[in-house]
Amino acid sequence: MIKTYRVRNLDCANCAAKVERALGKLDGVNSASVSFLTQKITLDVEDGREIDIAADVKRVCKKVEPDMELVLK
What we know:
Blueprint: E1 2-8, H1 13-24, E2 29-35, E3 40-45, H2 53-64, E4 69-71
Antiparallel strand pairs: 1-3, 1-4, 2-3
Helix pairs in contact: 1-2
């Protein structure tokens, strides 16, 4: 299942690459893509993992890039 999140305050492409690598290591994440230009995170998540992945994404983002904010609607 594909999950997409908007982010704020992602400052550079290097920051996006760091976040992308960290998100790719999460259990249940098949692939991760973080775009500095569009300020979006796109994850390919295993079925059954999509419900609780948002909390893990938020935790990883804060750890890797403290100024970055995950926009959850």
